[in-house]
Amino acid sequence: MKKITLSKTAVLLAAPLLLTGCGDSDSEASQEENVGEAMEYTITGIEPGAGMSQIARQTLEEYDNLEGWEIQESSTAGMLTELEQAINNEEPIVVAGWTPHYKFEQYDLKILDDPKNVFGDAEGIYTLTRTGLEEEMPEAFEVLSRFEWEPEHMQAIMLEALERDFEEVTAEWVEDNRELVDEWTEGIDKVDGESFELGSIPWDTERSSSNVMARVLEEIGYDVKITNLDPAVLYQALNQGEVDATVGAWLPTAQGAFMETYGENIVDLGPNLNGTVVGFVVPAYMEDIDSIEDLPARD
């Protein structure tokens, strides 16, 4: 496993930057200018509706050196493709990213310092339910309230699922980690095929946790359906009782605005995983880029 260099920030963007086209006589300023031009002063983002996309846009406004930069929003898959191509070709790129994620197993990345703390402090991944779940499905509510695991668990699943189906990988993980899983289900009565809808986000982090929870709930008798939704839509669905729960809420920063808007009818069971980071990230070979303030200003 390659070394991960973490920053103090709470939000994660990944950006390999290569200083190219500079001769021995070039000044440091010229090198930085060439880096910015090579990147076209663009950060490769993810889904526009993601909480971290909103914060990334805010970051451009907070840092004077990022005036004139742009966020190119597409999808998580698109971001990962751009990242892989840039690293393979040793070309500069800035992308929206987060940990835990398998890209930190694949590449040597570092998270940029965020002196203005726009991305906030350390995040957690939280379990949320709709109002009334505790009374209507107490067994599921109890399992969800006990659910807690480590970033290493999630990251191992994501890496293994690069080659195999998530359902297969998570089923094996549940069996291989039976002692931990039993802590979530000990003493809970079985149910008889009650339908349960688990809201998720189509990111590999959430695919990992959602599939693990689906497998565990199925073991105690629930008929579980995983519904993938855009983050904003997921919070609306929880608020309106259209899904029963999610184990993939990034709080308090990345998706905090959604919770403020829709949280009135949402029950917060707290973090099921701590130690997440989202923000600006560069590959470790970008030795001169350690902070957001190190990104070159645009003329």
From TrEMBL:
Q: Which Pfam families match?
A: OpuAC
**Cellular location(s):** Cell membrane
Which Gene Ontology terms cover its molecular function? Answer: amine transmembrane transporter activity; carnitine transmembrane transporter activity
Task: State whether keyword Membrane applies.
Answer: yes
Keywords carried by this UniProt record: Cell membrane, Membrane, Signal, Transport
Q: Which residues form a coiled coil?
A: none
Which SUPFAM superfamilies does the record associate with it? Periplasmic binding protein-like II (SSF53850)
Per the database record, which ranges form the ABC-type glycine betaine transport system substrate-binding domain? 33-175, 197-295
Q: What GO terms in the biological process aspect are recorded for it? A: choline transport; glycine betaine transport
Keyword Signal in the entry? The reply is: yes
Coarse class of the protein's main subcellular location = membrane
User: What does UniProt give as GO cellular component?
Assistant: ATP-binding cassette (ABC) transporter complex
Signal peptide extent:
1-21
Gene3D superfamilies in the cross-refs: Dipeptide-binding Protein, Domain 3 (3.10.105.10), Glycine betaine-binding periplasmic protein, domain 2 (3.40.190.100)
Source organism, top-level taxon:
Bacteria
Tell me the protein's name.
Answer: Glycine betaine/proline transport system substrate-binding protein
What lineage, starting at the top, does this entry show? Bacteria, Bacillati, Bacillota, Bacilli, Lactobacillales
What's the encoding gene here?
A: gbuC
